[in-house]
Fold:
Amino acid sequence: MSDDRAIWPPIDPISAGLHGRCPRCGEGRLFSGFLTVGKRCANCGLDYSYADAGDGPAVFVILIIGFIVVGLALWMEVTLNPPLWLHFLLWIPLTLVLCLGALRLSKGVLLALQYRNKAAEGRLDLGE
Structure:
């Protein structure tokens, strides 16, 4: 991340991430595709090369959505005892829709928080 030379107003990283906007100016687009991070902000010119969320968003989404869907499927099985094909018909599409929607949101939030907190790879201090 380069040092900002201009004065930018503080942007809420949660709001910017949820809307898929630039974490510095809050105006430009963060994503160039559905989950592909763009090269730079078209509005303020912030280079997005720092942006690397890794597997963090996927882990959060899998754990949270999995907990919700499995809980609902267990509740439905115990109370209604539907056939197995109905479980597949309900829970697989619901899981896919929720995971894809939540993955973009969580990736945007994590990238915006990474910018706000100046998170970077660890560096060794060699005492120079």
Remarks:
- The CA atoms of residues 28 and 41 lie 5 Å apart.
- Helices lie at 13-19, 56-79, 84-116.
- The first helix runs from residue 13 to 19.
- The chain is about 50% helix and 0% strand.
